Each structure stands twice: as structure tokens, then as C-alpha cells.
Amino acid sequence: MREQEDHSVSPSDNLDPADVEKLEQRVSFLREEVKNKNKVVKLLIDQLRELIKDISMWQSPVTNKREIKQHRQLVLILYLIYQGHLRS
What we know:
Number of helices: 2
Strand content: under 5%
Keywords: Coiled coil
Radius of gyration: 22 Å
InterPro entries: MED30
Largest sheet: none
Shape: rod-shaped
Helix content: 55-70%
Structural class: mainly alpha
């Protein structure tokens, strides 16, 4: 098993204020990016829930071709995200 590296900074380290500012900006950017990606994932999960709900309610073959196409696209998008091929 890998040992975790300690990336903490002690107060005794000499840090350039410009470097600290850059790191703080990077942290802020990454937090915002994670927040946005979490919104996309939540939306996809909600759409998947709706798809599963719709499929479970089907009692006869769906005749609406547009609806079938949307469901296929959603399933493909979810599969690609699961496989890591698609980045939001």
C-alpha cells in the first residue's frame, strides 16, 4: 500500500506571497469546477431516475420515436461518463 505524502506547509517555510496567491486562486478555481461538475452529475442522476421511472411504467411499446431517441442518447451519455470518456 502506498504511503500518503505530507503536502502540508509549516509556518516556518519561506513562501513567496505571489506563489501563495497563485495557489489560492488555483484552489478557488478547482472548487468552482468541482461545484459545477457536481451540478452536472446531479442533473444526469435525476434524468436517469426519470428514465428508469418511465421505463418501469411502460406497459406497451413506445411509439414516440423522439422519446426513444432521447432515452438512447441519455443512456449513451451516462455510459460514456461512467467509462470516463466524456468530461463535463
